[in-house]
Specification:
CATH topology of the largest domain: Carbamate kinase
Distance between the termini: 30 Å
Largest sheet: 8 strands, mixed
Strand content: 15-25%
CATH architecture of the largest domain: 3-Layer(aba) Sandwich
Strand order of the largest sheet: 5-6-4-1-7-9-10-8
Number of strands: 15
Order of helices and strands: HEHEEHEHHEHHEHEEHHEHEHEHEEEHHE
Structural class: alpha/beta
């Protein structure tokens, strides 16, 4: 089936949808735009009435708090405090809007640690699924008020969070609502002849860096982060629709079959949810650089990474840590769980597996990273 048939099929038969809406869509000069909030609630309530499970990823807390304070937000403490003020107003607005349609909404605030820790990940899974069993509408945001200031410990933006929630709730579709009409073939701010793409058929081969740049003034993401999120969920076999949240009744039009926005086709060969969790919920603790032969064996022949193919080790990490796998140019070709600490890898790198016991006194694993614990072409 071609992408148009696939799109019609998914939209018609989807049972669970994750919808992400950004700050640029939700907020105006005076803070939260209640007209937008009410229109979104109206459309999502109608989807819910048709039997769809809806999970909403909503930005806007910091922007809403900033408007209330009417002051400059200059650092992390100010951003976190503004989020605390704005989040309550954001949730109150949604609660009232959904309440008009007899819908129960539920607030879920997450940090990256909540999803990188396997036990807390499962707790989140149980909470989401019970809420959906109860026909509630979960409304999710990053918990900015307590999220660590260190970049590696944050989601970075709600596009990344949305991609992780798609895996968590086993969604059939991700709808990413932004201030643009979709993905353009070049920057429309710089090129008036830029065209909106109807479809991205192979996002794994797309040069995201050269396709888009910049971010919205109200948010922390941009089209780059939206495409990165789409690339991630495509690996799970889940499509993404990127549409303008500024257009009136856009969700209603999408589910009525109108051909708007940019459709991102999922990959045919999908990865396991375990590999997805390893690659995107955990944060790499270091890196290993491999030679050309090892890179070819990994990428083209699906082999495990042997110590003989490693030429450099970066960072400090222990056995079982997630590490990046770099080619000779320093480009990331994948991530995986290391069978050895950084110290042991430095001792055995460049050596044959048969030499590991001689160097370390024992050879618990012939591979530095087993293929089953590795994801290549990771969108990180």
């Amino acid at each position: 089936m071609d992408w148009k048939e696939q799109k019609q099929h998914v939209i018609k038969d989807a049972k669970r949808v994750v919808i992400k809406v950004g700050s640029a869509v939700l907020t105006g000069p005076d803070g939260l735009d209640m007209r937008v909030v009410n229109r979104l609630a109206d459309q999502m309530a109608a989807m819910h009435d048709r039997g769809l499970d809806v999970v909403l990823i909503s930005s806007g807390a910091v922007a809403a708090g900033r408007r209330v304070l009417d002051t400059a937000i200059t650092g992390v403490p100010e951003r976190q405090a503004a989020s605390a003020i704005g989040q309550s107003r954001l949730m109150h607005a949604y609660d009232e809007a959904f309440g008009r349609y007899g819908k129960v909404s539920a607030q879920i605030l997450l940090t990256r640690d909540d999803l990188r820790n396997r036990g807390r990940f499962l707790n989140a899974w149980n909470t989401f699924h019970k809420l959906l069993d109860w026909k509630a509408i979960p409304i999710v945001n990053e918990n900015d008020t307590i999220a660590d200031a260190v970049k590696e410990l944050k989601f970075g933006d709600n596009d990344a969070l949305a991609s992780l929630v798609v895996n968590l709730v086993h969604a059939d579709l991700l709808i990413n609502m932004t201030s643009a009409s979709g993905v353009y073939d070049s920057n429309p701010d710089q090129n008036p002849d830029a065209e909106c793409l109807q479809c991205i058929e192979d996002i794994s081969c797309m040069d995201i860096d050269s396709t888009c740049d910049g971010k919205t003034s109200a948010g922390t993401g941009g089209m780059y982060s939206k495409l990165l999120a789409a690339r991630r969920v495509a690996q799970l076999g889940v499509p993404t629709l990127i549409v303008s949240g500024a257009e009136r009744y856009v969700l209603e039009r999408v589910f009525s079959g109108e051909d708007i926005g940019t459709w991102v086709v999922p990959e045919h060969e999908t990865i396991s949810r375990r590999k997805f969790w390893l690659a995107y919920n955990k944060v790499p603790d270091g890196s290993v650089k491999v030679d050309a032969g090892a890179a070819k064996a990994l990428v083209w022949h699906g082999k495990s990474l042997l110590p003989a193919g490693i030429v450099a080790v970066e960072g400090s990490f222990g056995h079982g840590a997630l590490v990046r796998v770099l080619d000779g140019s320093g480009d990331v070709i994948g991530v995986g769980l290391s069978n050895y600490s950084d110290e042991d890898l430095r001792e055995i790198m460049g050596r044959r597996s048969s030499e590991i016991e001689q160097v370390l006194g024992a050879c618990p694993y012939p591979e530095a990273i087993h293929r089953d614990n590795m994801l290549l072409d990771a969108a990180i």
